[in-house]
Amino acid sequence: MVSIGRITLPQPICQAGLAGYSDRAMRLVARRRGCPYAVTEALLDVIMLNGGRGLEKSIDINDEDHPTAGQIIGSEADGMARAAAILAQRGYDVIDLNFACPVKKIKNKARGGHMLQDVERAKEIIKAVRDAVPPGTETTVSLRRGFDDSPQSADRFHEIIESVWANGYAAARVHGRTVEQKYFGKASWAFLKQLKQRYPSRTILGSGDVFTAHDAMRMLEETGVDMVWIARGAIGNPWIFRHVTALLGNDSIMAPSIGEQREALAEHFAIAMDIHGEPLAGRRMRKMGIKYSRFHPNSDLVKRDFVDVQSLRDWSNVLDKWYSIDGPGVWPAADAADEVNGGEQSCEPAAAGGARE
Question: Does residue 353 have a pLDDT over 80?
Answer without folding.
Answer: no
